[in-house]
């Protein structure tokens, strides 16, 4: 278990240097299994390219000694269907439709802004007219604090 901890610390030190050299990239997750399988999930403010994954992979692999410890390494980006897990991930999704689940409700709307405290969604709703028959379209919005978000996904259009 100590070897796994030391390996994880070494990988994190390499990642810190990579993110200093390329500040648009950031870490989502880094795990090391008891069998020394290293899995690194990265994201970027402008997305992640295959070249970004290769750069991170090479920086880790070339700085770990296979004579000391045998390991396998996977560097990937979050998939399109993966939930947003960090506030920084919301920035690149401004203008896109999100489905946000809180403890009280599930709201689907366009992400219009992000602040240090949370996000703001807007959506259109058909509601009865205040006077007379029929319905009218109303623009609604809601501020959702980050601590209230249970899960948030980008809604994909096909």
Strand ordering within the main sheet: 7-6-5-4-8
Task: Tell me the overall shape.
Answer: elongated
pLDDT under 50 segments (min length 5)?
Answer: none
- SSE order in H/E notation? HEEHEHEEEEE
Radius of gyration: 21 Å
**Quaternary organisation of the protein chains:** single chain
**Average pLDDT for all residues:** 92
Please report the number of helical segments: 3
Strand residues, percent: 35-45%
Proportion of helical residues: 10-25%
Structural class: alpha+beta
- Our measurement of the CA-to-CA distance between the termini, rounded to an integer number of angstroms, reads 45 Å
Taking the sheet with the most strands, its summary is:
5 strands, antiparallel
User: How many E-type strands?
Assistant: 8
Q: Would you write up a description of this structure?
A:
It is a single chain. It is elongated and about 80 Å long. The protein has helices at residues 2-21, 50-61, 87-91; strands at residues 25-32, 37-44, 72-76, 97-102, 106-114, 118-128, 135-145, 149-154. It is α+β, with helices and mostly antiparallel strands and 158 residues long. It has a 5-stranded antiparallel sheet with strand order 7-6-5-4-8. Strands 1-2-3 form a 3-stranded mixed sheet, covered by helices on one side. The protein is 23% helix and 41% strand. It contains 3 helices and 8 strands.
């Amino acid at each position: 278990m100590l070897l796994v901890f030391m390996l994880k610390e070494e990988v994190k030190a390499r990642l810190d240097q990579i993110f200093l050299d390329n500040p648009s990239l950031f870490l989502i997750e880094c795990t090391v299994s008891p069998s020394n399988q290293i899995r690194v999930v990265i994201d970027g403010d402008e997305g992640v390219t295959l070249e970004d994954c290769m750069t991170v992979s090479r920086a880790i692999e070339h700085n770990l000694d296979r004579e000391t410890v045998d390991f396998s390494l996977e560097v990937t980006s979050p998939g399109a269907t993966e939930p947003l897990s960090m506030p920084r991930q919301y920035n690149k999704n401004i203008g896109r439709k999100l489905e946000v689940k809180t403890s009280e409700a599930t709201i689907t709307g366009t992400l219009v802004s992000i602040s240090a405290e949370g996000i703001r969604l807007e959506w259109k709703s058909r509601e009865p007219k205040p006077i007379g028959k029929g319905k009218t379209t109303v623009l609604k919005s809601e501020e959702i604090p980050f601590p209230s978000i249970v899960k948030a996904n980008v809604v994909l259009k096909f």
